[in-house]
C-alpha cells in the first residue's frame, strides 16, 4: 500500500476523532483548537507532499522524514509546555479552593458553636 | 501611655504532629495570653487536629496536604479576614519555645519592624543550632539574601516569626510554597517591609535519616535559590510594567 494513502487516512482519522471528541464534549474548544490545527496541517501535507519535500529541502534537511520528525518533536515540546501551564493553573486554583473550603468549614463550626446547633 | 490592645494570631502549621501539637498549643496558650492560637492541620492522617482542639486551639483542617507554604498562607488569609493586628508563625513540632513569643512580638509592638524573625544564630546561645549540613545551607542563604537585597538575616530558615498588618495583607495574597521561609524574607523586603531579627533559643527536633539529609539539604538549597531568583525577576518585571504603565 502506498505510504501517502496511509498518511492521508491517518491524518483525516485524527482530524475526525478530534471533532468527534468535541461533539461528545470530551474536549472543549479551547483545548481542541491546537489539535485541529495540527491535524489539519497533517492532512494538507499528506495531500500536497511535494510541498513538504520542498520545505524540507529549502530548510536544509537531507531527508523529508527528518523534517517531519523535527517538526513533530518541536510541536510536542510546545504542547507539553502548554499543558504544564494549564496544570499549574489548575493546581493553584485547587489549592486556593482547599484553603477557602477549610476556612469556611472552620467558620461554620464556630458559628454552630455560637448558636449551639448540634 | 498604655499600649493599645492588639489582636494577635499565632499560626501553627502542622502535618502529622500528633505527638507534639497538644503540648505546643498548651504552651503558647499558657505563656502568651491574649494570643489566639490557630493550628492549620495540613491534611494530617493522624490525630493532630483532635489533639490541637483538645488543647484549646482553633483548628483549620485542609482537605489534603498542600505543603507548609499554603498552610501558613491559610492562617494569613484568616488573619486578614478577621482583621488581626499581628500574626505569628510558630512551628507545630515543638521546636520553638513559647517563652520567646513576647520577645519576637516586641519590635512589631513598638512599630520598629514589619516582620520579625526569631534567630538561633544572633547570639552565642546554648540551644539547638541544627545539624552541620543544614547550617551550611543556612549560611548559604544568609549570603544569598544579603547579596540580593542587602539585608543580613542570620537565620533565614527560621519559622518562628511575627508580622504586622501590612505583611498580613501581603502574605494573604501571595506566600511562597514548599520551603517558604527564605523567599518570604525577600518578598517582604521587596514590598518595602522592615525586617528585624531577635535572638531566640530553639529546641532540637527529631533528626531524620543522616544519609539522605545531605542530599535533601542540597535539593533544598538549589530549589529555594531558584525560587528566590525567579521571584527577583518577576518582581523586577512587575515593577517595570507599573512604572511604564
Overview of the structural elements:
The complex is a heterodimer of chains A (118) and B (245). By secondary structure, chain A is mostly helical. Helix content of chain A is 87%, strand content 0%. Chain B has one domain: Spore Coat Polysaccharide Biosynthesis Protein SpsA, Chain A (Alpha-Beta Complex). Helix content of chain B is 47%, strand content 15%. In chain B, helix 5 runs parallel beside helix 7 and helix 7 runs parallel beside helix 8. Chain B starts with 7 loop residues before the first strand and ends with a helix. About 2% of the residues of chain B have low confidence. The chains are: A mainly alpha (118), B alpha/beta (245). At the A-B interface, helix 4 of A face strand 3 and helix 3 of B.
Helix-strand layout with pairing:
The complex is a heterodimer of chains A (118) and B (245).
Chain A: H1 3-23, H2 29-47, H3 49-59, H4 64-115
Helix pairs in contact in A: 1-2, 2-3, 3-4
Chain B: E1 8-14, H1 21-31, E2 35-41, H2 48-54, E3 58-61, H3 68-81, E4 86-89, H4 101-109, E5 115-119, H5 132-149, E6 161-164, H6 165-173, H7 180-190, E7 195-199, H8 210-244
Helix pairs in contact in B: 3-6, 5-7, 5-8, 7-8
Give short descriptive properties of this protein.
heterodimer; A: 118 residues; mainly alpha; 0% strand; B: 245 residues; alpha/beta; Spore Coat Polysaccharide Biosynthesis Protein SpsA, Chain A; 8 helices; 7 strands; 47% helix; globular
Q: What can be said about this structure in brief?
A:
The complex is a heterodimer of chains A (about 120) and B (about 240). Helix content of chain A is about 85%, strand content about 0%.
Number of DSSP helical runs of chain A: 4
Discrete helix count of chain B: 8
Largest sheet of chain A: none
How many strands, which pairing sense, and closed or not: the largest β-sheet of chain B?
7 strands, mixed
Structural class of chain B: alpha/beta
List the uncertain runs of chain A.
none
Relative helix content of chain A: over 70%
Gyration radius of chain A (Cα, Å) is 24 Å
Largest interface: A-B, 10 and 15 residues
Q: State the end-to-end CA separation of chain A.
A: 75 Å
Run of helices and strands of chain A: HHHH
User: What CATH architecture label of chain B applies?
Assistant: Alpha-Beta Complex
Which oligomeric form is depicted? Answer: heterodimer
Number of strands of chain A: 0
Helix and strand content put the structural class of chain A at: mainly alpha
At the fourth level of CATH, the homologous superfamily of chain B is Spore Coat Polysaccharide Biosynthesis Protein SpsA, Chain A
Amino acid at each position: 500500500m502506498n505510504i501517502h494513502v496511509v498518511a492521508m487516512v491517518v491524518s483525516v482519522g485524527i482530524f475526525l476523532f478530534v471533532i468527534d471528541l468535541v461533539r461528545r464534549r470530551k474536549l472543549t474548544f479551547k483545548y481542541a483548537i491546537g489539535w485541529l490545527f495540527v491535524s489539519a496541517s497533517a492532512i494538507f501535507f499528506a495531500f500536497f507532499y511535494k510541498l513538504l519535500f520542498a520545505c524540507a529541502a529549502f530548510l536544509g534537511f537531507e531527508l523529508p522524514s527528518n523534517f517531519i520528525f523535527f517538526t513533530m518533536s518541536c510541536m510536542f515540546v510546545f504542547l507539553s509546555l502548554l499543558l504544564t501551564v494549564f496544570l499549574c493553573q489548575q493546581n493553584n486554583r485547587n489549592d486556593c479552593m482547599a484553603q477557602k473550603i477549610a476556612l469556611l468549614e472552620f467558620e461554620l463550626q464556630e458559628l454552630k458553636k455560637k448558636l449551639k446547633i448540634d | 501611655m498604655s499600649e493599645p490592645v492588639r489582636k494577635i494570631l499565632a499560626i501553627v502549621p502542622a502535618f502529622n504532629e500528633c505527638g507534639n501539637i497538644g503540648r505546643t498549643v498548651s504552651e503558647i496558650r499558657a505563656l502568651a495570653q491574649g494570643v489566639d492560637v490557630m493550628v492549620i492541620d495540613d491534611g494530617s492522617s493522624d490525630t493532630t487536629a483532635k489533639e490541637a482542639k483538645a488543647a484549646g486551639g482553633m483548628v483549620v483542617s485542609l482537605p489534603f496536604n498542600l505543603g507548609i507554604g499554603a498552610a501558613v498562607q491559610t492562617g494569613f488569609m484568616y488573619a486578614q479576614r478577621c482583621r488581626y493586628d499581628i500574626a505569628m508563625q510558630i512551628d507545630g513540632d515543638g521546636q520553638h519555645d513559647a517563652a520567646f513569643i513576647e520577645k519576637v512580638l516586641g519590635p512589631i509592638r513598638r512599630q520598629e519592624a514589619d516582620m520579625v524573625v526569631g534567630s538561633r544564630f544572633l547570639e552565642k546561645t546554648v540551644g539547638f543550632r541544627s545539624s552541620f549540613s543544614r547550617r551550611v545551607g543556612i549560611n548559604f542563604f544568609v549570603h544569598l539574601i544579603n547579596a540580593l537585597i542587602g539585608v543580613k538575616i542570620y537565620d533565614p530558615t527560621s519559622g518562628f516569626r511575627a508580622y504586622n498588618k501590612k505583611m498580613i495583607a501581603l502574605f494573604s495574597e501571595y506566600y511562597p510554597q514548599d520551603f517558604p521561609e527564605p523567599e518570604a524574607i525577600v518578598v517582604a523586603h521587596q514590598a518595602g517591609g522592615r525586617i528585624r531579627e531577635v535572638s531566640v533559643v530553639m529546641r532540637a527536633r527529631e533528626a531524620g535519616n543522616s544519609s539522605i539529609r545531605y542530599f535533601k539539604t542540597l535539593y533544598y538549597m538549589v530549589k529555594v535559590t531558584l525560587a528566590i531568583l525567579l521571584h527577583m525577576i518577576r518582581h523586577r518585571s512587575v515593577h517595570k510594567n507599573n512604572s511604564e504603565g
